[in-house]
Amino acid sequence: MRKARTFTSQFKREVVEELLSGTTGPAQLARRYNLSSGLLYHWKNQYVRGKLNNEPAEEAALRDRVSQLEQILGRLTLENEFLKKALENTLKEQRKKESSFISTRASSLVPKGGVS
Fold first, then answer.
1. pLDDT tens, 45-63?
2. DSSP classification of residue 53
């Protein structure tokens, strides 16, 4: 079985910068370095996000931040809906107990049988 190749961050960064410069196309780079085009685009995405020991592109950093905030918002929305339903159910139960208490209390005050 063949061992997977590993590449340094510096090598990945150099290849991606060559790709981004436009002097060499992805197919040429893939052939030259014996890489798949998918790997090149994976490295490009890492580069844009600043994962290859470089400064992240501002747009990608903002996209990542928006994604994180959307996840937090979704989680808080679900939590809020859950708590609303729990409160609603608790209030319904409380009203049922109060109404049954009032009806049993009222019925016990009414005299049973006989003439008053």
1. 888 888 887 776 677 667 7
2. S
Q: At what angle do helices 26-33 and 37-48 cross, to 10 degrees?
A: 110
| Mean pLDDT along residues 75-96 | 95
Q: Which two tokens stand for residue 5?
A: 């190749």
- Please give the Cα distance from 18 to 30 (Å, whole number): 12
Task: Measure the CA–CA gap between 53 and 19, rounded to whole angstroms.
Answer: 17
The token duo for 72 is 């937090």
Q: What are the CA-CA distances from residue 67 to residues 36, 53, 72, 74, 83 (Å)?
A: 28, 22, 9, 11, 24
CB 29 within 8 A of CB 40: yes
What SS3 state is found at 22?
coil
Nearest to 17 by CA among 44, 55, 37: 44
Residue corresponding to tokens 């990608």 = 60
